[in-house]
Amino acid sequence: MIKLILRLLINAASIWVAAYLIDGITLDVNNIVGVAIVALVFGFANAIIKPIVKFFSFPAIVLSLGLFTILINAALLWGTGAFTSALTVQGAIPAIIGSIIIGIVSWVLSMFLDDKDDD
Questions:
Q1: What is the domain count for the chain?
Q2: Is residue 118 part of a domain?
Q3: pLDDT value for 105
Q4: Are 8 and 19 in contact (CB under 8 A)?
Q5: Less packed terminus of the chain by CB within 10 Å, N or C?
């Protein structure tokens, strides 16, 4: 349960960093519940929808040497913005750059998270 909350916080922090750095991404940081919902929706999209999309777009991923996954992440970010009211993504370029930033920040913050199972 603690790891789930930590993953939620990592998602929220990475989306906040992307919104802070990119002009086309807006996150309503005054609405803490909205930010938590954005993090939940983005985490759900990455856990459930992303593997399905990656499975069906496998040829494009192979032909682009993996760069197509950036577009998948951008589409998931854009979809999260369309589905929630606390996040706004204004265009494809901010979504692409935002997905790269979110991926980097999530990777860096996840390095501090212990992935071993607790007994």
A1: 1
A2: no
A3: 95
A4: no
A5: C
